[in-house]
Amino acid sequence: MHDLQNSPTLLWFRDDLRLSDNVALKWATDHGPVIGLFIDESSYRSIGAAARWWREQSLDALAQDLSSYGVPLLRRAGNPLEIVPEIVSEMKIKAVTWNRRYHQPLCEVDATLKKNLRNMGLEVHSHPGFLLTEPWEVSTAAGTPYKVYTPFSKAAWDIAEVNASKITTNSEPVPSNLTGPANVEMPSIPEIEQPFWAKKLAKNCAPGEKNASEKLFDFLEHLQDYPGGRDSLARSATSKLSAHLRFGEISIHRVWAETAAVGSEGTNLFLKELLWRDFAWHRLYALPHMDTQNVRMQFNRFGWSWDPSEKDKLNSPSSPLTPTKADQFHEDLAAWRAGTTGIPLVDAGMRELWATGSMHNRARMVVASFLTKNLQIHWRHGEEWFWETLVDADPASNAFNWQWAAGSGDDASPYFRIFNPVTQAKKFDPDETYIRRWVPEYGTPSYPDPIVDLKESRQIALDAYSAIK
What we know:
Blueprint: E1 9-13, H1 23-29, E2 34-41, H2 49-67, E3 73-78, H3 80-90, E4 95-99, H4 106-119, E5 123-127, H5 149-170, H6 198-204, H7 209-221, H8 226-229, H9 242-246, H10 252-262, H11 267-286, H12 328-338, H13 344-356, H14 361-374, H15 379-389, H16 395-406, H17 421-428, H18 433-438, H19 454-468
Parallel strand pairs: 1-2, 1-4, 2-3, 4-5
Helix pairs in contact: 3-4, 5-10, 5-11, 10-11, 11-16, 13-14, 15-16
């Protein structure tokens, strides 16, 4: 161990790309000068193109913010079990710290690294991460994880309040003693290949900690509009915080505390949405293969259309949006991705996703129901497309919500609940503002006929479910 008093502490950033309300950063600054590190890891599913684009902008902003305090942000790619010990030895690091994460195999990586570094004589400390409640803090009377949201939320609510109060009370916006080590050269920002639709994302997205704080402020100013407006497709009544939370540009505890302090009609409703995010992560913690395996085993017998080679096409500029085989399944999947199904609300949602890297939550439910039930295509194809194209693609929420929509997950929407896109449009986009914004040719001869009959395909889906029930 290096016993030099001024030896730096290494702060390993992951999904916590901010300076404010960052518990690991506070701990690091209390131990002297700080060096930041970010690792593009090879031990887990590769991040999707849209989320990678967001993360790169966020890392650039973080690097600039750190540099103003003289703190370098090192960038590496590969295996942390090799990279971190190398940096520790090279830069005479005396302590290492990070905020926790909650999915395998990354939890195992962290546990192994902590053990290895302590064996080297270093002080190593991890802190509560990006959840309101740690997965081991919330369990049933039998000591098992909750599988149903409502009792989970009741059990988690008070814990979330205490944790938010504790962390926001004990943290300071940016630690006043934050500084970097002397004589360390600031690393240059690496050039990362951009997805081919990045220019569209740049028009519609504003990554970074500063923008996250502004979004929260704007949302809380209009929180009273949230209950009545959150399902309106044409209005902008939702928080728009999901990608900021995905990359930790704002503390989930701060969002909870500041929302709770408003005391508006929308307060509890939005806090429940934050707990839904926690619930998804608690389920992933218990079910690490939730992104590839049906939670409810009976759906292993369900006859969804599936082609594993489709995943390999998602990095290509054009092939995901055009059918590559002359069969109905591939044509239907390509039409769904491109927003050319002839079902206006479905097409509007899918085009919003392609243009902005996001989609209104009501539209997400409709397009997911349409894919898995009306088109009888496996939810994994939808999950993989969202993983590639959503800026807020989250390992837990993405998989959990797709299984919820498909009926195959915990506390899922019942399979027989099939969203009718026409009815949903009349209810949540009565003036067709949302549809016409994203599908300008709607109502003209150039708009395609529906690729499937909604009533007939609904009945086929119900019959297929009856066969496995």
